[in-house]
């Protein structure tokens, strides 16, 4: 799995940081998404998918790789 974000579209709702705090945070200046781990370990894949689905602006992209 690989993650990417489009910060320019982020609205600062914080759902990503609440849902997957090991993968996402928010910057202190604008409250926009900060991607902490673009290639998360397998045990974080579910929370990454949930965070992507919970993002109201749809700024998180999840790229699935074959096992």
Low-pLDDT runs of 5+ residues are none
In quaternary terms, these chains amount to single chain
Tell the overall outline: globular
Structure summary, number of beta strands = 4
Our count of helices gives 2
Q: Estimate the mean pLDDT confidence.
A: 97
Class derived from helix and strand content: alpha+beta
Distance between the termini: 9 Å
Portion of residues in beta strands equals: 15-25%
The percentage helix is 10-25%
SSE series: EHEEHE
CA-based gyration radius? 11 Å
For the sheet with most strands, the description reads: 2 strands, antiparallel
Major β-sheet strand ordering? 1-4
Descriptive notes:
The longest helix has 10 residues, at 45-54. The radius of gyration is 11 Å and the shape is globular. With 67 residues, the protein is an alpha+beta fold. It has helices at 15-19, 45-54, and strands at 2-5, 24-26, 33-35, 60-63. The model has no long low-confidence stretch (mean pLDDT 97).
Helix-strand blueprint:
Blueprint: E1 2-5, H1 15-19, E2 24-26, E3 33-35, H2 45-54, E4 60-63
Antiparallel strand pairs: 1-4, 2-3
Brief summary:
The protein is an alpha+beta fold and about 70 residues long. About 20% of the residues lie in helices and about 20% in strands.
């Amino acid at each position: 799995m690989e993650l990417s974000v489009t910060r320019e579209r982020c609205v600062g709702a914080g759902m990503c940081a609440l849902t997957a705090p090991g993968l996402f945070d928010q910057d202190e200046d604008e409250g926009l998404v900060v991607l902490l781990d673009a290639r998360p370990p397998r045990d974080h894949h579910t929370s990454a998918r949930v965070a992507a689905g919970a993002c109201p602006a749809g700024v998180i992209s999840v790229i699935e790789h074959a096992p």
